[in-house]
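Lab channel / #folding
Pinned by the channel admin:
"Please post every new chain as: sequence first, then the structure tokens as a reply. Keep commentary short and put observations after the output so the thread stays searchable."

First post following the new format, from NK:
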Amino acid sequence: MATTAHATEFIGLLKSLRAVRRFADKPLPAEAVRDIQEVIRWSGSASNRQEFEVLWIEDRAILRRLSELKGYAKHLGGAAAGAVIVSGITPSSAATTRMNSDELNAFDEGRISERIMLAALVHGIGSSIGMFVGEAREQAAKLLGLPGGRTVQTTISLGYPAEGALRGGRRRPLDEVVKRIG
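Reply from TO:
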């Protein structure tokens, strides 16, 4: 269990996470990459089956091509690295649960994405979640050489923030965001 001082520090870290969409031209250190990848490996998933794979991309040409696809991943084009989550949960593998494959994939991708972003933050690395939409999902899978049946939707861009890239943390008041019942 965390002590009060550690809990306060950890909560501060969680609250400080911001989306960074503009990056400095600076590579990521191997130690930070290794830590982020270990966090990926230890991330939980639906039924703890880990039916996902994360493609770690540092090739700037591939990142630029991915950034041009339809969706919300333009920031990949300037990133030092990108993580693309490849989901393996299909309708048949989801049949043992009460959720469909899209719901399970969204559940897993959200958990992994936030953990990648927090692991990066610990090293001073900025990040932003992104996604491909419509036909761009198939185009991304083809660009990355994935076999049929594999789904690509969620991306995370990573890199050191460019000057001026960090914006303020405006948030609505707590009582407008969290409603206590009972």
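NK: Residues 87 and 151 are 5 Å apart (CA to CA).
TO: also worth noting, The longest strand covers residues 151-159.
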